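User: Earlier you gave me the apo prediction for this protein. Now I'd like the version with flavin-adenine dinucleotide bound, so I can compare the two side by side. Same sequence as before, with the ligand SMILES added.
Assistant: Got it. Here's the input I'm using:
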Amino acid sequence: MRILLVGAGLSGAVIARALAEAGHRATVIDARAHIAGNCHTERDAETGVLVHVYGPHIFHTDDEGVWAYVNRHARFRPYRNRVKSTAQGAVYSLPINLHTINQFFGRTMRPDEARRFIEAQADTSIADPRTFEEQALRFVGPDLYRAFFKGYTEKQWGCSPADLPASILKRLPVRFNYDDNYFFHRFQGMPEDGYTPVVASILDHPGIDVHLDTPFVSDMAARHDHVFWSGPLDGYFGYDLGRLGYRSLTFERFRATGDWQGCAVMNYGDPDVPFTRITEHKHFAPWETHEGSVLYREYSKACGADDTPYYPIRLVREKALLSQYVARAAGTGNVTFVGRLGTYRYLDMDVTIREALNAADAFLHAVQANARPPVFSADPA
Ligand SMILES: Cc1cc2nc3c(=O)[nH]c(=O)nc-3n(C[C@H](O)[C@H](O)[C@H](O)COP(=O)(O)OP(=O)(O)OC[C@H]3O[C@@H](n4cnc5c(N)ncnc54)[C@H](O)[C@@H]3O)c2cc1C
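And here is the structure of the complex with flavin-adenine dinucleotide:
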């Protein structure tokens, strides 16, 4: 069969590869001038630093199959994400751990003492937290909430934490030991030469053609037996029911000499600092040596028609609109909506790969059974 994959990110590449290996002909298009979608990395011409063009990406997973898959396409180096936060005139370790607590409150508590201390800070009058703010106050109390959650969340989401659902802060966001590894996953690492070579290797198959600088136009669908769409779900329908809400990011790029901030990611929690974080890209590849440095100041904003959609908002208004688009999608003939934009969900890279492998499998089974392939790679609701 002739299959069209819209988007040369991880979703499009992984599905194209699986279908090409099964003997189908896969054409991958992307509106951008490069492959790898939002995971794209490229070297800065002046400094040689490997830059995560659309923001920092760290690979972490518990999925052994996905870990084996990416390791077939690149050499991964061990990498632990250790984030710092500048707040109220000091630098702290994140996620909030025993070091953060002891430093913030000027104490030398052991784990059990700290647990009791934080419990005493928590606002126990909130029996059933409904909002993000209530949840945070219930978990950590007002001081840690103000320093590490309130300002950061306001900047990131453009609204008060009192207007966000409690579900965003699901678990107690505090560790009562000195573990500052941002992720819990068993497998964590960084591809030695960045993510774009990983995707290039996935796409490197005689059954796959790639066309960059090629936005989708509707008559392309008619020339193919099936379309996998990893662009925005609402974009497929020309946004004719309205736009699904996203937050977008702006990166203010600057260069420096030597080591500018001493770590890869520094968050800024204070409300009067307009950016959310600064990323120093050379620290994502500590095995490399560069005299110069490349940094991003990251600002969050509402996503306009000409902006890149990053984080789906998924509040009440968006969920209502989403269900209308889901109904529209069910009426399409030969399209499967995949990936983070096609299913309007935040997806980490490992989940993206797992869902793409499953989508390719489901497609191959449907073809064999002469049935309609699934409309979505995963339920957008
Ligand atoms: C700021 C940020 C940081 C992240 N950090 C991490 C992290 O640390 N770890 C992690 O595991 N995950 C991270 N992620 C998630 C990761 O980026 C996604 O899992 C991954 O990019 C999803 O791949 P995708 O192929 O579904 O989508 P994308 O990478 O967005 O690819 C979709 C592609 O479709 C193309 N396209 C869209 N519309 C059209 C059209 N009409 N015609 C042609 N082409 C089109 C786009 O140009 C794009 O290249 C992060 C995401 C963001 C936003």
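For your comparison, keep in mind: The pocket of flavin-adenine dinucleotide is lined by residues 6-12, 29-32, 37-39, 55-59, 215-216, 230-231, 235, 249, 310, 339-341, 347-350, 352 (CB under 6 Å).
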